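Example 286, ligand zinc ion.
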Amino acid sequence: MNAADISGLQWDVLTVKRPGLTRDLPPGKEELTWVANSATLIYGSRDAILVDTFLTVEQSRTLVEWVAASGRNLVAIYVTHGHGDHFFGLTSLLERFPDARAYAAPEIVEAMHKQLSPESLDNFWRRLFPGDIPDRLRVAEPLDGGELELEGQKLVVVNTGRTDTERSTALHVPSIGLIVAGDVVYNGIHPYLGETDAESRLEWVAALDKLQALNPKAVVAGHKIPENDDDPRNIAETRKYLRDFDRLNAATETARELYDAMLELYPDRANPGSLWGGANRAKKRT
Ligand SMILES: [Zn+2]
């Protein structure tokens, strides 16, 4: 009998692809200029909790249908961090499942509010995805106490601090050894480094160590190649990527040199635009 049988909880992942955010990158990797988001449904015999949503109207529709098809009663949606591509789908989910509540850690709710500022929403998201972002957007309620419960099992918020954004969390389900990692872990996709610096990348590595110490059996990355499995080795691979980036940043002069050196190590990761954005930020002279 495995852990899933004992606790009764199971999980499933839905992924959707979209264009990356940095689109003016050097030529040569056109077939990889996309990114995929994941949403994870943790469910028991009756009820379910969804972790993260998607960005666009179309993606949200797909997600709503997928959750409905599970046949479970959606009781909550947990949002790992305040990036729009993980919570702009909340409105459609809450309309379709009116008994569900959307939760995030209090500091994440603050970050979500910031993401809805005109500067971010109109000048960034709506410009990059014209006509595709839902008209009505909402934020989650602050979750006090850092835990959710699903059919008697605990889902525990792990505060991971600064990772690919200023504030981030992951959700740990101890009874089945599952971590839904949000953007703390990337799987086969270039991490978003556009909000990081050398110091914050050390904090990110520490956050990865924290997840590793929970000794998970499965780790779902917020951005993953759809066909990839959810092996915990993605924690170590994300850590290695960040360390390689810092090592090669020190060894190169220009953004292009850093970009090319990283691509030699990671030729097959999706969304090289994310690396290009990160390399330009790392080399920015102020
Ligand atoms: Zn993300």
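Summary: The chain has one domain: 7-282.
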